[in-house]
Structure formats: C-alpha cells, structure tokens
Amino acid sequence: MEQYKLLTPGPLTTTNTVKEEMLFDRCTWDQDYKDITQKILMQLLQLAKASPEDYTTVLMQGSGTFTVESVMTTAMNNQDKALIITNGTYGERIVKMADYIGLHYKHYDVAYNAYPDELELKYILENDAAITHVVMVHCETTTGILNPLERVSRLAKAYQKTLIVDAMSSFGGIEMDIPALGIDFLISSANKCIQGVPGFGFVIAKLDKLQACEGNANSLSLDLYDQWKEMNKDGKWRYTSPTHVVAAFSKAIDELMAEGGIPARFQRYQRNNQLLREGLEQLGFQPYIPGERQSPIITTFLFPNDTFEFADFYHYVKERGFVLYPGKLTEINTFRVGNIGEVYEEDIKRLCNVIQQYMGAVVK
Ligand SMILES: *Cc1c(COP(=O)(O)O)cnc(C)c1O
C-alpha cells in the first residue's frame, strides 16, 4: 500500500520509532510494564507544569470520548450542576453524555465561529447559584477554533467552580500551565498532540477534587476514582490495558521531550498552520475561523466555488500522499486540514503544490 501522511486531527501520522515499540508483547502485571505506566504518569504531570502534591494523573482505556465520559460521571453527582459551554460538536457530545448520565446542567451554546461572551457567562454564574462545575472544550476540533481558556478559567476561579476542560486536541501542542489556570480536570488522549497511537485517554486532576469523588460514578468501567485508586498504588491498570499502545505512548512522550518539549512542538505546529492558511488562501480557499481565533491544530476551509467536489479533490490529494478530513458543519460546505503529527513545513509546501495542480486541472 502507498504510504500517505494524515492531515487529520488524530489518529495522525506517527514516527516509525513509536510504531516499533508495538512489536514487543508486554505483560500487564510485570514490573517493566508498570514502570512504563508510572513514568508516563510522572511525565504528563511535568508537561502540565503540575506538582504531585496538588495534582495526579489517571489513564483510561478507550478513545478520548470514554475518558471525557469517565470525568463527567465521576466528577459530578446528583447534587451538582454543570455549566456546559459549547461552540462545536465535541462540546455537544458532552451535553449528550450529561443526558445519558442524568446530570443537572445548563447548556450555554454559541455559534461555531464565535467565542462565549464573558458578560453572559458572568450573568449565568451570578444568577444560578446551583452551578458547581464549568465545562468547556479548549480547541474545538469541529472547526479548529481555539477557545479563550484563560478568560473562562478566570471566571470559574472567581466564582469558585470546578473547571473541567476537554483539551483533547490541544494538550501537548499548546503550552498550558494547569495549576495557574486552575483547571481541576483536564482531559486528553494518546493519539493527538503527543503523537501516540489510539487506545487510551488521560486525565490530569486536582488531587483534592478527585479524592472527593468516591462513589459518584454510575458506571463501573468508567469510574475514574476507582481507576485512580488502583493505578496510583504501583502503576497497575484496573482491567486489561492496551499494552502496545501504552509502550508506544511512552516513546512518543520521550520524542516530544527530545523535540524540545511543548514550546518546540507548538512552534512547529504554528508554522505548519500559518503556511497552510497562507498557501490555501492564495489558491482561493477561505478559512472559516478568523485568524485571531484559529488554533495551530486544524483548519476548516470553505469550498472555493459551487462546482467543487470534495470526494474528487480528496482522492486526487490522497493519490499524491495526503489524507484530508471532511467538514463537520451542516449549513456550509467545508473540509478540514490538520497539521499535527509527523508533519513538517516541507509537507505543507508539497500539499499546497498538489492543491495548486488540482485547481489548475479542474478549472481549465
Ligand atoms: C478527538 C477529540 C475527542 C475524542 O474523540 P474520540 O474519537 O473519542 O477519540 C474529544 N474532544 C475533542 C475536542 C477531540 O478533538
């Protein structure tokens, strides 16, 4: 099969050295494997700039959504009420989870290309004393908008609410000082900016907040508290863990550190994203999210004209080495291009050349 690069929000293109870690079969209760898990727990805290006195890390089997759901079912009980802020489908998925779990919540919904309004948020928090938790997605992968985390975290702190952040597609690619932001539960997964393969997610949690969550979960396998109790002892996972994925992830973190940590990865992603936006704009593609709200992760572009066919475009570009992503907006025709993973300036330049050829070929 032809190799191509994934220009998607994850799973994404990983290094051969990360993939090679999966050629070895490991035993879940052996010390070597538990050491790998413990090293990951420690490194994730470092990446979050958090100390083990105040914060802890828990890994959870499944895709990222499983981990988000484990936080929602564990961090809240039926006395609590969440303010769920959404401007995309990943936020809406959290609302759906809240319905499944039976949580009390207020849904504050804004347009997919807009930021939540600070005054409106203030008004809600001021007038609804029942709210105990604030929940938001950091980078809404639906569109690529980067939400104003500092603003929302300031409000959550001012009103003393527990802050839950889905940073699935940003953690590892954008610097975040989790203690300074006052984030109580930050969620991400193996196959996004840390550049591992899919199979588990992780939570960086404020220790005292997590310790208070015993008995909240209404799901056994998604009980984050119970998972933490077990894993925190000696690095042993509760139930079978994705051993190959965990080993690959450990390698991926080492490679992130070797690249220069999150600041260096951010620079690479940011540069990729600038080149991508500039290159495609020159070819007649308008980005959906204005520059100042654009994340360095993934970009949504409008179709350039009425005759543009995404399926045709997709196959043309795929045959020449890149896999793109369909759009996720209902009212406008769009597609998305991710720029995370093993993707460099020269890849973006090559992609722009391929798209230029395509546009030349179809416009005729
Ligand atoms: C990828 C992603 C998720 C999780 O999606 P899965 O398909 O379950 O891994 C959740 N939130 C955001 C913002 C994401 O980008």
UniProtKB/TrEMBL annotation:
Involved in phosphonate degradation. PANTHER family: 2-AMINOETHYLPHOSPHONATE--PYRUVATE TRANSAMINASE. The modification N6-(pyridoxal phosphate)lysine is found at K192. Belongs to the class-V pyridoxal-phosphate-dependent aminotransferase family. PhnW subfamily. It comes from Oceanobacillus oncorhynchi. Keywords: Aminotransferase, Pyridoxal phosphate, Pyruvate, Transferase. InterPro entries: Aminotrans_V_dom, NH2EtPonate_pyrv_transaminase, PyrdxlP-dep_Trfase, PyrdxlP-dep_Trfase_major, PyrdxlP-dep_Trfase_small, SP_NH2Trfase/AEP_transaminase. The keyword Nuclease does not apply. It comes from the Bacteria. Residues 54-327 form the Aminotransferase class V domain. Its EC number is 2.6.1.37. It is an enzyme of class 2 (transferase). It catalyses: (2-aminoethyl)phosphonate + pyruvate = phosphonoacetaldehyde + L-alanine. Coiled coil: none annotated. Its cofactor is pyridoxal 5'-phosphate. Substrate binds at R336. Homodimer. GO terms for biological process: organic phosphonate catabolic process. The keyword Transferase applies. This is 2-aminoethylphosphonate--pyruvate transaminase. SUPFAM superfamilies: PLP-dependent transferases.
